[in-house]
Amino acid sequence: MQSATMPVPFMVLAAIKAIGTISRTLEEAQAAINIIDLSMVKQKLMDPEEGQGWSVDQADQAELRYRRYLCMLFICRDGSIVPTKDIDIFWHQHILDTHAYAA
To answer: Residue 79 — left, alpha, or beta (φ > 0 → left; ψ -120 to 50 → alpha)?
Structure first.
């Protein structure tokens, strides 16, 4: 289990800062976060050999929770929000999909 004092990875905070430069409201931030294509991330996580072997439902739920997590980071930019295990796994896979992560 992660410590509540564990800092949010720098790249996530940088992405939230970038969203903040184009988004002044939570609604604008949500819109920016919602257009990120995470389909390849989910596909990889569902792969039983190279990913986690998640079901479609597990991947869909983790995607929703990940997007909510990014919105929470937009609100609380000091990085004090610690992700749950499924969000952390999703985030790590998102980093590996560099094309989507750069979006």
So the answer is: left
Q: How many residues does the chain have?
A: 103
pTM: 0.73
Name the one residue in this structure whose structure tokens are 């509540």: 4
Could you give the CA distance from residue 103 to residue 100 in angstroms, rounded to a whole number?
5
State the residue range of the domain holding 28.
Answer: 10-101
36: nearest Cα among 55, 72, 14, 64:
64
Q: Which of 44, 28, 21 is nearest to 99 (CA)?
A: 44
Asked whether residue 42 is domain-assigned, the answer is yes
Q: Is residue 1 part of a domain?
A: no
- Alpha helix ranges (H) inside the chain: 10-22, 26-34, 39-46, 56-75, 85-96, 98-101
Report residue 40 as tokens: 């390849």
Record the tokens describing residue 79, joined without a space: 């990085």
Residue 88 lies in a domain: yes
Our count of domains for the chain comes to: 1
- Per-residue confidence (pLDDT) for residue 15, from 0 to 100: 61
Q: Is residue 68 part of a domain?
A: yes
